Sequence to fold (599 residues):
Amino acid sequence: YVALIEKEGRPAIDVIAEIVPVVIRTFPWPKAMRWGERSAKPGALQWVRPLHSIVATFGMETEEPDVVTFDVAGITAGQATRGHRFMAPAEFSVRRFEDYEAKLLDARVVLDSARRKDIILTEARNLAFAQGFELVEDQGLLDEVAGLVEWPVVLTGSFDESFLSIPDEVIRATIRNNQKCFVVNDPKTGKLANKFILVANIEASDGGAAIVAGNERVIRARLSDAKFFYETDLKTKLEDRLPKFEHIVFHEKLGTQAERIARIERLAAEIAPLVGADVGKTRRAAKLAKADLLTEVVGEFPEVQGLMGKYYALAQGEDASVAQAIEDHYKPQGPNDRVPGDPVAIAVALADKIDTLVGFWAIDEKPTGSKDPYALRRAGLGIIRSILDNKQRLELTSLLMSHGDLFPNHDSTTTAFSLIDFIGDRLKVQLRDQGARHDLVDAIFSQGAGKNVPGSGNSRDLLMIVRRVEALGKFLDTDDGRNLLAGTKRASNILAIEEKKDKRRFDGAPDASLFVADEEKQLARAIDEVKREANDAVAKEDFAAAMSAMAKLRPAVDAFFDKVKVNDDKPEIRENRLKLLNEIRAATRAVADFSKIQD
Fold:
């Protein structure tokens, strides 16, 4: 049955008048507020900032627009708005968006946030340059400040040089977090200068002198606090802070921070010889790595954790590699963050991330969908980058299993294999993001280069997997590679059809006595030779040589398909030839699962 329903058209302006109030009321702000007398009433409007007026017009470009009439929380839409609250508060009317933007600019409001950012960045750079300094650019702060002002006016202020005894990062965090100001570098010293750049929202009659003075007063007080915190921290050695961790819970199911530090220290010592690190220095770095979490400065500015640990370690005479490892063990914390490069730092960073993953896997707190409250995906990518960027060879499965034995109430083998799959999936994402073809990545993983077999040398050796993907990509860019892929896929397709028809697999070696055509014999000999050469090359991890060996198979495969009928009338000949096709498939699997590769 078909129902024919006629719905009478309505003027677009009426439809808009119904839709826009719903959009305004349901707009998904990350944070919203209520205000005024209506705020306590049920269903009160919530918006990112107090809403005072709504401009809504509609009409053809060539005609005078009409006002879209609707009401939201007592605010009636119209075509009147205002400019800057202090410099141009008078009401004015607008017709269309272009008119709206132009009149706001005349009324001291830069509507476009990108333009506000450009104004701030350009003027800040110029101000710094004029004084012989360089702006320390901060995209996050720029985005935030551009959202706080309508009419950006860039000014410069200063603070007492005595505060430069504080680490640069603490000065920057103090000025950035408390006053939303930028800092500048002195190119002569490579360190911060005692200047800062602020962004006001008004052209003050005194040229901004009062605004600058107010910011200088607050920054002076904040830096005084920071200096006190820093000097207080220096009076207590990092090691002397460690007993407090015995009373701080890391996670209710994973014990205290002290227990976690002990696990990381043990694992780091196990990893150290594998990455060429000194075991004693690695143990020391792992032991002290979290100590700065209990300092005053890190308590005030959590973003400098690790970094302050390095400064305190150097101040108390620790080895430079130990201090660097304390800073770097959190790294990398994102795709653009650098990875640890010193062997001691690599060992501690890997131990920290492996302990995090194994621990949360052991208590079944795995990331699901978009939820990853413990940043476990980031930890997985951190392990991958630390290994690949430093070209390290680690048998991850064994490390994960041995560390899993430190956690109760779970099967360490199951946990290790699950984590290996998780890290493998992260590696796939990383390689694809770097431009590797997803089908080549799947071909290598499916082939078994990352088998979960402890002690096999294949336990998700990440560096070897990447090298295989690179070698396979180069091979498939050649004529031999493309033609061999076509021949292998043809063999696989024929096998799939015949195996489905016969309801069996054609495994096992073909019988040489049943070869009839010369092309069969030549193909069999080529397969034996290629398998031997390719397997030897793979064993030596010379994947380019393995691909070159595979190329030798191409002429024999081409000749076989040109001259030989696979489905011979004689059943025994047919079966033997299908087994020969299976040998082609098996031979190529020495380097990759060609069935996963797209044409």
